[in-house]
Specification:
The chain is an alpha/beta fold. Helix content is about 35%, strand content about 25%.
């Protein structure tokens, strides 16, 4: 099996590669020399391509696409021309213009994108609910964004480019709730604030209010000032409350869903459809884009 890593714009493809290299021959391309050097130091035997066109050339079974958000639509269009399975590291769109460009692409059923958390064992084993019993849901995202306050990957922290904390961290909570309750959901409101990291371009805390078509309400809390990383889903019922906690544990690659995501991607590279229909991904992107627009 031959897999291309098209871009190393975030930390995710570095993590993805640690699992992929056990199953496939890899070829990598990255436009930033320093990021490419870091990758090559860890994986010296991986073939390096000089351009996106080169990394997509020849026989490919799959592509992991990780470029800055403004570049995603054009790069994904090139990937789609190969016919290979594609995993787009989150978020596939961080703003309205980007989302509208994605809407014009012929996205097929072997394209996967979104938060890896839906494949975390703690969540995947319990991601079935009797929705008639549910009154309301809440997702709490604890993921520190202090590294952006130093200027690192400034495009991620810029609302008009990578979406900032509301989008890049908020997608984790929205993804989990949509995975539980389905894609017929709309944003009812959103707000963000800066409580600690004053040099951020976006925010370090945020909240979204959601509503499903049958009246279930949801809340996504984003806490970008946190000493530990964890994600929690709470389901409120008439006479009980159920909580699902996702933590890294002793093996973060498995515990946070990276391993499960790559397993799904490898199945797609073998010919299987994406386990997450694009309609569902599109619903998640609509919520986070609207949250960015209104916060």
């Amino acid at each position: 099996m031959r897999i291309a890593l098209a871009g190393l714009a975030t930390s995710h493809p570095y993590t993805d590669a640690r699992t992929l290299i056990r199953h496939a021959d890899l070829v990598v391309w990255e436009q930033d020399p320093e990021r490419l050097r870091r990758f090559a130091d860890e994986h010296p035997r991986v073939k390096v391509a000089a351009s996106l066109e080169e990394v997509l050339r020849g026989r490919l079974d799959g592509v992991v696409l990780t470029v800055p958000n403004p570049q995603v639509p054009q790069a994904l269009a090139q990937v789609l021309e190969t016919g290979a399975a594609c995993f787009v590291n989150k978020p596939a769109a961080a703003g309205r213009a980007q989302l509208e460009q994605l809407d014009r692409l012929p996205i097929h059923d072997r394209v996967l994108s979104g938060s890896v958390l839906r494949f975390a064992p703690a969540f995947a084993s319990r991601a079935r609910v009797a929705r008639e019993e549910v009154l309301a849901v809440r997702a709490t995202v604890r993921h520190d964004v202090g590294i952006w306050a130093t200027g690192y990957n400034a495009w991620q922290d810029t609302p008009g480019e990578g979406g900032g904390t509301m989008v890049t961290m908020g997608i984790h909570g929205v993804e989990l709730l949509v995975a539980l309750l389905g894609p017929v959901v709309r944003l009812a409101g959103a707000a963000g604030g800066t409580r600690h990291y004053r040099t951020l371009r976006s925010e370090d805390t945020g909240v979204m209010a959601l509503r499903w078509d049958d009246g279930i309400t949801g809340t996504v809390e984003i806490l970008g000032v946190s000493e530990s990383e964890s994600y929690e889903v709470t389901l409120h019922k008439r006479d009980s409350t159920e909580t699902i906690l996702i933590e890294s544990g002793d093996d973060p690659i498995k515990g946070l869903g990276y391993e499960g995501t790559i397993e799904a991607f490898l199945a797609m590279a073998g010919g299987a459809p994406s386990p997450v229909p694009w309609r569902e991904t599109r619903a998640v992107l609509e919520v986070i884009v609207r949250a960015r627009e209104t916060s």
